[in-house]
Amino acid sequence: MDLKQKLIDFGCGPEFIDIALKYENLFPSDQDIESFIEYVETEYAKVEALEEIKNRDKEIVDASGIFEEFEDEI
């Protein structure tokens, strides 16, 4: 039975199956499907966290209002 069918039989949704198939080359045929699913979830969470950090670094913060506050206090 191929990996995609094992994931379908386990009850995984199409979005997760697409993600998991990218990790297919890391799936030893003797490994149980639950262990593989946990591995994919862990690794993909790392990818999402890195993407969030990259997106956060791209954000531009407008600090001009901060200086206006201090001028009002002087």
Indicate the mean pLDDT.
85
How many β-strands, per DSSP?
A: 0
Low-pLDDT ranges: none
- Strand composition percent: under 5%
Q: How many H/I helical runs? A: 4
- The general outline is rod-shaped
C-alpha-based Rg, rounded: 22 Å
Structure characterization notes:
The protein is mostly helical and 74 residues long. Helix content is 70%, strand content 0%. The protein contains 4 helices and no strands. The termini are far apart. The mean pLDDT is 85.
Features:
single chain; 74 residues; mainly alpha; rod-shaped
Secondary-structure topology with pairs:
Blueprint (H helix, E strand, L loop, with lengths): L2 H8 L3 H8 L11 H26 L5 H10 L1
Brief write-up:
The protein is mainly alpha-helical. The chain is built from 4 helices and no strands. The longest helix has 26 residues, at 33-58.
